[in-house]
Amino acid sequence: MVVCVHLPRFELVRAAGGARALVGRALAIAPPSGSEQRLGEVSGAAEAHGVRRGMALGEALARCPDLALVPADPVGVEESWESMLRSLEAIGAAVEPARPGLAYLETGPLRSLHGTDVAVIAAVQHAAGPSADAAGATAAAGRSAGRSLIGGAGDRHARMGAGPTRFCSLAAALAVRSRRPLVLDGSEALRWLSGRPIELLGYRAETEQLLQPLTRLGVRTLGELARLGRAALADRFGAAGVFAHRLACGEDTPLRARLAQECMQETMSVGDASSGPAIERVLGVLVDRLLARGDRRGRTLRAVTLSARLLAGGGWRERVVFRQPLADRDRISLALSLRLLLLPAPAASLGLAVERFGPPAGEQRALLEESHAARAARLREAVVQVRTVAGEDAAMRAVCVDPDSRVPERRVVLTPLPG
């Protein structure tokens, strides 16, 4: 049996500061700067006026003049969603995250730990409940100077559904209007699924483009779609039509659970160095700290995530994949400094996290090919010996971050010396 965990309007709740901020208010996530002016997630009050996700901003304001725009917070959403996934994995579940606010897991591997499917669903419901949210809020507050990234305890009320396939469990979770899970099994699930609207196809990337043509053809439910026949849908829509027919008939692909990930992250308050060359120096400090961490174990970096908290509210997040695994500070800083130009507004804090490691490699390959290779090797050995005797903070170097700052502590920052 597959369990679906769905948190409605997950991104909007985090951006607005909690679920209570949505009550009775027409809210929507503002379009990102420099892109097509289309809304993100919208509140229930906005939907009552006909505003939908992905709608053009001008059309949305024409339908709802009182619509208020909330800046997107991808950093808070990512950290909150990661906290949620780790809560589910803590009970032994192998989780497939479909998107922020939507995840799937199977009950079969968990029966040996929890007993029956009912006990497994109860454990999942407890892991996704407000108690886990409070723990995540405490951890997030420590990383963001007291500001909760996930809206506070009690805001996370997941809706859960269970069924024989991923699509059946999704339909059950979307139909739930309380905290009590909806469990479907066997032929009952297929009969129930036939009466559900075809809008469910919009939750799958393979079939979302079929919603508009099927609506024009007068197809309203999944049962009507199944009666059209697989051959007819294949002739009209190709592989997407075949997959939609499979979903309507209760078939689906197996779950693809994510692999366990090692989290390694560094954050730093920017202070007066909110933009320009000063923030590039802050980025250099983050790279130094990341490369100097002992849990890196000499591995190279293959992909990293650069994030920022903006002074005006909200956040910014950019994924950077290097052309080859790197462990050289200058090359990493050069690649990341180009992404800082994409910052939409001055930043309050900067973060750098490793998303994927590369294989262990020599960090000074270029120096070994030069005449001063022996000197560099002796210097590295000296740094290692000093740290072994006096600790990790024994070998440091001063980096000028913001020389014009009125606060002396912001002018120069100590960062680990590459060893």
Q: State the secondary-structure class.
A: alpha+beta
Secondary structure tally, helices: 18
Distance between the amino and carboxyl termini: 51 Å
Number of strands: 13
Q: Provide the residue-averaged pLDDT.
A: 83
CATH uppermost class of the largest domain: Alpha Beta
| CATH topology group of the largest domain | MutS, DNA mismatch repair protein, domain I
User: Could you give the order of strands across the largest sheet?
Assistant: 4-5-1-6-7
Radius of gyration from the CA trace?
25 Å
User: What is the annotated CATH architecture of the largest domain?
Assistant: 3-Layer(aba) Sandwich
- The helix fraction, in percent, is 25-40%
Unreliable segments of 5+ consecutive residues? 131-155, 363-369
What coarse outline follows from CA principal-axis ratios? globular
| Whole-number tally of structural domains | 2
Q: How big a fraction of the residues is strand?
A: 15-25%
Summarize the main sheet: 5 strands, mixed
What does the model show?
The chain folds into two domains: 167 residues, MutS, DNA mismatch repair protein, domain I; 153 residues, Dna Ligase, domain 1, CATH 3.30.1490. The protein is α+β, with helices and mostly antiparallel strands and 419 residues long. The chain contains 18 helices and 13 strands.
SSE arrangement:
Layout (H helix, E strand, L loop, with lengths): L1 E5 L3 H7 L10 E3 L14 H5 L8 H7 L4 E3 L3 H16 L5 E5 L2 E5 L4 H4 L2 H11 L2 H14 L15 E5 L2 H10 L6 E2 L2 H9 L16 H6 L5 H6 L2 H8 L1 H10 L15 E6 L7 H16 L6 E12 L4 E12 L2 H12 L6 E14 L4 H4 L4 H18 L5 E5 L7 H4 E5 L3
Parallel strand pairs: 2-3, 6-7
Antiparallel strand pairs: 1-5, 1-6, 4-5, 8-11, 9-10, 9-11, 12-13
Helix pairs in contact: 1-4, 4-7, 12-13, 14-15
